[in-house]
Backbone:
């Protein structure tokens, strides 16, 4: 049986000579366990899928049926719990009538992990209503929204 010494200061080989092999690499770059938390990019992609799904008026069940998965799988995709493969993202984009690129965060904004307005139930409708308001009505509505957000933050 060959024993390899991976302690700091050892050469990593059985005979004490440096061999430049993978044993040295393992010592230098330990493998970290994967986090159980969804990756922020996966969450953002899921958020964008949800936003587009709501915008086009599809339920999770309808989207799932159109791409061959259950609504539970759509829920997991939208929360970022399950990663969406490239082929599945292509199917989703086709079902929603959007480009695959539109389901990725843009280069100029970093994913925040917070849901977008379009991904929140009623968000699209709120935005459409907001557009129809006068500037003074918009200012009043924004003031109410800020007061509510501060209240919820406390």
Residues:
């Amino acid at each position: 049986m060959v024993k390899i010494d991976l302690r700091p200061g050892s050469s990593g080989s059985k005979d004490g000579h440096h061999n430049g092999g993978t044993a040295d690499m393992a010592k230098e770059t330990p493998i970290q366990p994967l986090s159980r938390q969804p990756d922020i990019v996966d969450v953002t992609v899921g958020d964008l899928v949800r936003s587009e799904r709501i915008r086009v008026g599809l339920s999770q069940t309808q989207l799932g049926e159109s791409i061959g998965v259950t609504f539970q799988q759509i829920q997991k995709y939208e929360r970022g719990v399950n990663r969406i493969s490239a082929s599945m993202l292509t199917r989703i984009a086709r079902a929603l009538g959007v480009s695959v690129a539109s389901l990725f965060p843009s280069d100029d904004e970093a994913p925040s992990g917070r849901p977008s307005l379009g991904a929140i139930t009623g968000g699209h409708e709120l935005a459409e209503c907001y557009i129809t308001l006068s500037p003074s009505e918009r200012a009043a509505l924004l003031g109410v929204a800020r007061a509510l957000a501060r209240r919820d933050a406390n």
